[in-house]
Amino acid sequence: MSATHNIDFKKASFKDFETIDDLNAFQRAEIFKDFTDYMESQGHMNYRFVTSNGCGPEMWVKSPFQEAPQKCVSLVSNDYLNFTQHPKVKAAAIEGIQKYGTGAGASPLIGGHHEYHVMLEDKLSTFFKRPKDSSIVYTTGYTANSSTLLALLKAGDCAIVDMAVHASVYEGLLETNVKRFPHNSLIHLERALAEAQSKYFTRIVVIDGVYSQDGDLAKMKDIYDLTKQYGGFLMVDDAHGIGVLGDTGRGAIETFNLLDKIDIISGTLSKAFGHIGGFVISKPEVANYLKFQSRQQVFSSTSTPAAAGLLKAIDLIDEEPEWRNQLADNVAYYKKGLLDLKFDIGLTASPIIPIKIGDPHKTGDVARMLLKAGVYANAIVYPGVSRKDARIRTSLMATHTREHLDKALNAFADVNQKFHIVKNE
Fold first, then answer.
1. Nearest residue to 220 via CA among 177, 178, 250, 175
2. CATH architecture, domain defined by 31-74+322-419
3. Are 161 and 235 in contact (CB under 8 A)?
C-alpha cells in the first residue's frame, strides 16, 4: 500500500486521483506526483515521451528507459497520410504565414475571421458535397465536438450516445440530458430512442464513424435508420475516417453511402489532413447558429494562418489517392502479420489496430520492451479502456515501408515469447 492516503499504487489508475476524500487540489497533486514517480520506477510511465523530429514512420524518442534518444518505428501518430511532411502542404502553410502572419489575432466573432478561414470553410463544404455555408471551423477537433454540443443541447433536450464515443463528446453534454447505450447495440439504442421520443424537444444520437481505441466502425446505416424512425437527429464524429476510408476518402460516412443524410458531421484537421483544428458540417442554418452561439467561436482565438496548408491537404485527397491506397495496403499487410501471430486485434477496420492484452501491468511491460526494440507504440489502460481491456494501440501511416512493418511484427513476436500474450488453444 502507498504510504499516502491508502491508495494502492499497484492497482491505481490516473482516474483514482481525480477526487480523494478530505484532500484539496494541491494535496491531490502531491499524491499524484508520488504515483507517477512510482510508475516511472516500474518502467510503466509510457506517456509524454519527447520526440525530436516531426511526424513520420520513424521518430527519435527520448524515454526514461534510454540514456539517449532512440530511432524507432513510430506506431503512435494519427497523421495517417503523413501530410504533415508533404512538400505541397508545407509550401501552402508557409505561404499563408508569409501573407497573414503567425496568428489570427482574435476570436472569429470580433475580428479573427480571415480570408483563409472563409476559403477553408468553403472548401470543406465542397469536399462533403454540401451547400455553401454548411461548415464551421474550430481551433481543435475536441472543441468542434464539445462546443457544438454545448451550444445545441440544453435542459429540454437529450443526447443518446454510444458509450465508446470520444471524451470531447461527453464534455459537450454537461448542460443536457444524456442516455448511453452499449457500443453498437441496436437493441439498447432503440430502447433509448423510444423512451426519449416524447420527453425531449431535441434527440441527437451521437456516434463515431471509426472508434479510436478498437478501430472498428459504427453500424451507421442501421443507427441512421433507427434514429429517423423515432424522429431523432444523427451526429457522426468521423475524425479517424475522413481522408482515409471511402471510395474518395470522405470517410466511414461515405462507406455507408450517407454523405448527404447525416445531420451533423464533425471531424478533425489534425489526422489525415495533417494540421490542427476541427470542423462541423450541417445545414447552413445550423452552421450559422453555431458561429454566433458556440462559446469557442465567441471567446477563443481561431486557427493560425498556417492553416492555409489545409487548403492544399484537402485537395490532395482527390489529387493523390495513391497515399490512401498505400495506407490500405499497409493496413492489410500488418493485420495479416498480427493475425498470423495469433494476436487478438478485435474488429478493427481502419489504420487503428489494437493488440489486446488485458492485464495493465503486462501491457506496460510490453510497451517498454517494444520501445527497447525500437518500436514506439501506445500502452492504453483504464480509464482509456475498461480495466480488463488494456492493449497496445498502434496506428499506421501511408509512408510506413515493409521494412518498418516487419520490424514491428518481429518485435511483437519476440514480446509474445517473453510475456505469452497469445494463449495456447
1. 250
2. Alpha-Beta Complex (3.90)
3. no
pLDDT in tens, 189-244: 999 999 999 999 999 999 999 999 999 999 999 999 999 999 999 999 999 999 99
Class of domain 86-319: alpha beta
CA distances to 39, 245, 387 from 11, in Å: 11, 38, 10
Q: Give the β-pairing of 177-181 and 158-162.
A: parallel
In whole angstroms, give the CA distance from residue 233 to residue 160: 10
Are 263 and 235 spatial neighbours (Cβ–Cβ below 8 Å)? yes
For residue 217, give the DSSP letter. Answer: B
- How is residue 35 annotated by DSSP? H
Domain residue extents for the chain: 31-74+322-419, 86-319
DSSP-assigned beta bridge partners for residue 264: 235
Residue 415 CB burial class (10 angstroms; 0-12, 13-18, ≥19): buried
Cis peptide before 383 (omega within 30 of 0): yes
Task: Report the alpha-carbon distance of residue 158 to residue 169 in Å, rounded.
Answer: 13
CA-CA distance, 233 to 348, in Å (whole number)? 26
pLDDT tier at 361, thresholds 50, 70, 90? confident
Give just the sign of the alpha carbon dihedral 81, 245, 152, 129: positive
- 211, three cell numbers: 472508434
